[in-house]
Amino acid sequence: MARAQVFISYSGHDAFEANLLQYAIETMLAAEGVTAWAYQRDQARSEKDIAAALKQNVRESIATIFLVSPATLEGGAAQWMELAYADAFEVKTFILLHHLEYRELRAREHGVPPLLIASQCNAALEWKNIVGDIRSLVRGVHHP
């Protein structure tokens, strides 16, 4: 079975939650051959150009999951680039708000990309709802 990759973007502050999400996605979508790529586990430590590696992994993914938290809003430049890559490569994007509400995003005058505001945002507690969407996406990619 061909492997399908899902890219998980998160703030380093949220690494624990991202690791749990990565495990859950891979476990629940194992039958579809899905792997979930996340920086902490999967980035090669010898990689010299991390930005290029992140860009390549977004490009190779069938979907991206963005775990957006207050830590992202305080210093999320890397995550914003990953969001821009996903948009540029037309990779299906799922946004999960972690310890953050949509109204808080809208209330910020600076630091939140318009692409995020214009996107469908879901509470992180509802992460299971996107599993079915990813499953359908994988089946559509591998079984036209």
UniProtKB/TrEMBL annotation:
Organism: Thauera sinica
Name of the protein in its database record: TIR domain-containing protein
Gene3D superfamilies named among the record's database cross-references: Toll/interleukin-1 receptor homology (TIR) domain
Domain of life: Bacteria
InterPro entries recorded: TIR_dom, Toll_tir_struct_dom_sf
TIR domain ranges (all copies): 6-93
